[in-house]
Amino acid sequence: MPVQAKIGPSILNADLSNLAAESQKLLDNGADYLHLDVMDGTFVPNLTFGHPMVKSLRNKIKTAFFETHMMVQKPEQWIEPMADAGVNLYTFHVEPVQDVVKVCRQVQESGMKVGLAIKPGTEVQELEKYVSIADVVLVMTVEPGFGGQSFMGDMMPKVKWLRDNYPNLDIEVDGGVGPKTIHCCAEAGANMIVSGTAVVGASDQAQVIREMRDVVHSYLK
Question: Is 176 assigned a ligand-binding role in the annotation?
Answer without folding.
Answer: yes
